[in-house]
Amino acid sequence: MPTTKSNFVKLAVAALVGAAMKAAGAIGVYAPEAAAVIESGGGGSRLDYVLTDLSASNYAKNGAATVALTGTTAVTIDLTDLTSATASSAGDTTFATVNKLVLRNTGTASLTVAPGGSNPFDVFLGGSSPTLTIPAGSTHVLESVAGKTVDSTHKTILITPAATGSFAICAGGA
Fold this sequence. Notes:
Layout: E1 7-11, E2 15-17, E3 20-22, E4 27-30, H1 32-40, E5 44-46, E6 61-69, E7 75-78, E8 88-91, E9 97-105, E10 111-115, E11 132-134, E12 139-149, E13 156-161, E14 165-173
Antiparallel strand pairs: 1-4, 1-5, 2-3, 6-8, 6-14, 7-13, 9-12, 9-14, 10-11, 10-13
């Protein structure tokens, strides 16, 4: 089967695929419509179809904020107060736990995301000095089913732009 315009599905249960029986855990190639039916029926999950919708995630809190970035000046985002250092915010603005972060570079130059210099939140990256570069116009979704604690000593994220631009952050958690 050609793989252009196809989804990859990991089967949760054994299934008849064409004339062959595929075991649970097997990966198959399916037309998008078929992949959606398999996933919605609980028969598997699309490995290449990553859709982030905080409204469907069932988190106790969901919030978003936009940040105006000037030159190469770093901006610190505080997950205990999404209204600080942001141009606009909506939804919940204070988190004690974050399960999912959607980091969207809405500017025209790359930017780097890292734990803040003071009271750093590790941004799900781990290590001693982790960073994540997000190219212009790109989005990264970081998720932990267990969640990461946000408190007075683990709360800040540092955004460093390569040039003037903008950034949006969405958070889901509690």
